[in-house]
């Protein structure tokens, strides 16, 4: 696993990968700015007007709880775009990765596995669906953990573990679906859940590093291409010719 991570890191600035890296970083920056500003405005609205609206909807018995929630949200809104950028980074990288999965995987397969059958490009709609699904799920999980971050600090650990599970899950399935049906890819991920979660910890650590995390889609995808190859075992098309020569 460490070898796979080192190989993925070494390819980040390789000549064939540079164009994809710059496009990925540019798209991630645009999405961060747009989504972070939108999040800040949403939080500001809730801190100002949302408490009254929810109390009218839920009833006076919720007043104390909504006051606490409004206080939390007002703090989050005050952190503004910076908070939004950090908070949304794993979700954004999930979405960006779905756009560049085949570009990255093709380069990794050509360089490290030239004798093997290359994977088939994912349908664009399938790749986008997986990216959007993971991004939305990431946001939901983080919103649930947010109060714990502000009160106890335990939310940071939840963030990290959730990112490892969610990102490891998505990147592995994207890599696997180049060779398998979506159902087979998901089944393989479940059968190797512990290994893939551990691999996801590498991606979660990468996405936790400011600035560097803009390259997460490239690193995560390259890393999981290697992991899928290792978990797949020897390829039949390479074994059979060797047997016939004996």
Automatic annotation (TrEMBL):
UniProt subcellular location: Membrane
InterPro entries: CysZ/EI24
TM region positions: 20-48, 68-89, 139-167, 196-225
Name of the protein: CysZ protein
Main location as per UniProt: membrane
Membrane topology term: Multi-pass membrane protein
Pfam family, one: EI24
Species of origin: Bradyrhizobium japonicum
Keywords for this protein: Membrane, Transmembrane, Transmembrane helix
Lineage, highest ranks first: Bacteria, Pseudomonadati, Pseudomonadota, Alphaproteobacteria, Hyphomicrobiales
């Amino acid at each position: 696993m460490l070898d796979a991570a080192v190989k993925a890191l070494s390819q980040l600035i390789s000549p064939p990968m540079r164009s994809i890296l710059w496009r990925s970083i540019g798209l991630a920056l645009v999405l961060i700015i747009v989504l972070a500003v939108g999040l800040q405005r949403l939080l500001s609205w809730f801190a100002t007007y949302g408490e009254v609206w929810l109390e009218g909807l839920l009833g006076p018995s919720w007043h104390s709880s909504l006051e606490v929630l409004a206080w939390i949200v007002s703090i989050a809104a005050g952190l503004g775009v910076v908070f939004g950028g950090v908070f949304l980074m794993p979700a954004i990288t999930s979405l960006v990765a779905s756009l560049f999965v085949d570009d990255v995987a093709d380069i990794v397969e050509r360089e490290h596995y030239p004798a093997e059958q290359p994977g088939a490009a994912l349908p664009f709609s399938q790749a986008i669906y997986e990216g959007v699904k993971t991004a939305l799920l990431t946001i939901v999980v983080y919103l649930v953990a947010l109060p714990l971050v502000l009160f106890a600090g335990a939310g940071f650990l939840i963030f990290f573990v959730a990112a490892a599970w969610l990102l490891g899950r998505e990147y592995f399935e994207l890599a696997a679906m180049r060779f398998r049906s979506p159902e087979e890819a998901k089944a393989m991920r479940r059968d190797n859940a512990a290994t893939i979660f551990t691999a996801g910890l590498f991606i979660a650590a990468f996405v936790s590093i400011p600035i560097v995390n803009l390259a997460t889609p490239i690193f995560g995808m390259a890393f999981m291409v290697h992991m899928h190859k290792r978990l797949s075992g020897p390829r039949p098309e390479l074994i059979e010719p060797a047997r016939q020569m004996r």
